[in-house]
Design brief:
- It catalyses: guanosine(37) in tRNA + S-adenosyl-L-methionine = N(1)-methylguanosine(37) in tRNA + S-adenosyl-L-homocysteine + H(+).
- Its EC number is 2.1.1.228.
- It is found in: Cytoplasm.
- By secondary structure, the chain is of the alpha/beta class.
- Helix content is about 35%, strand content about 15%.
- The strands form 2 sheets. Strands 2-1-6-5-7 form a 5-stranded parallel sheet. It has a two-stranded antiparallel sheet with strand order 3-4.
- The longest helix has 19 residues, at about 205-220.
- The chain is elongated.
- It starts with a strand and ends in a 6-residue tail after the last helix.
- Bound molecules: ligand JFE.
- The ligand COc1cccc(Cn2ccc3ccc(-c4cc(N)[nH]n4)cc32)c1 binds next to strand 5.
Length: about 230
């Protein structure tokens, strides 16, 4: 999978050189290319924002640099990417959305700043490819970078070969629409706290049943919306 990221803070994504995704890049499983939106400006101050039409506080990102960035990535790719723009005004980014994006050969993450991106950028992107306006959660960040990083990690780890043991992906929270069961490891007693006996019993069927009950109870208590 190829991932292009466009931001006015490209250094924010340096962390993608390390950890699991960094190794995946080194193994050719992920081709992540980070770009500075200001590379597509042409004035002395490399301007990317301007005042909003209709008035209001803050600044809006100008459409021209984004249009040139989109065209530059398109020109350098075999087919149109899926354009992902994190925004508080988007549909929720969920594990289901991550799974869907993980099947795509090419993603373009557009990271906005200020009060957001001129709406015509989304319209233009939709005229040349599929656009996903996605929210990381119901809170407001200062820009799209943190959300894009989370989305890139959630999608990247689903690419075959990126995570060592693919079986672990199937048991995680939200994979089956439920929260995952509690986990324990050695020591068996720690600061006076023990481990549920069933996990030490070696009875795999009883362990699986206990884990299923724990998942259902935890989901009902913490995320009843997932059971609706
Ligand atoms: C667009 O409306 C906005 C209103 C006030 C501030 C901002 C700041 N901002 C700029 C670009 C941008 C991209 C994503 C997000 C974001 C996503 C989630 N889940 N929270 N926050 C926030 C962003 C935007």
């Amino acid at each position: 999978m190829r991932i292009d990221v466009v931001s006015i803070f490209p250094a924010f994504f340096d962390v993608l050189e390390v950890s699991l995704l960094g190794k995946a890049r080194g193994r050719g499983l992920l081709d992540i290319r980070v770009h500075d939106l200001r590379d597509w400006t042409h004035d002395r101050h490399r301007t990317v924002d301007d005042t909003p039409y209709g008035g209001g506080a803050g600044m809006v990102m100008k459409p021209e640099p984004w249009g040139e960035a989109i065209d530059a990535v398109r020109a350098d790719a075999s087919g149109p990417p899926v354009f992902v723009f994190p925004t508080p005004a988007g549909r929720p980014f969920t594990q289901r959305a991550a799974r869907a994006l993980a099947t795509e050969p090419h993603l373009f993450f557009g990271c906005g700043r200020y009060e957001g991106i001129d709406e015509r950028v989304f319209d233009y992107a939709a005229s040349v490819g599929r656009v996903e306006l996605l929210s990381l959660g119901d809170y407001v960040l200062n820009g799209g970078e943190v959300a894009a990083m989370a989305m890139i990690e959630a999608v990247g780890r689903l690419i075959p070969g990126v995570v060592g043991n693919p079986d672990s992906l199937a048991e995680e929270s939200h994979e089956g629409g439920m929260l995952e069961h509690p986990s324990y490891t050695k020591p068996a007693s720690w600061r006076g706290l023990g481990v549920p006996d069933v996990l030490l019993s070696g009875h795999h069927g009883e362990i699986a049943a206990w884990r299923a009950r724990q998942s259902e109870q935890r989901t009902r208590e913490r995320r009843p919306d997932l059971l609706a």
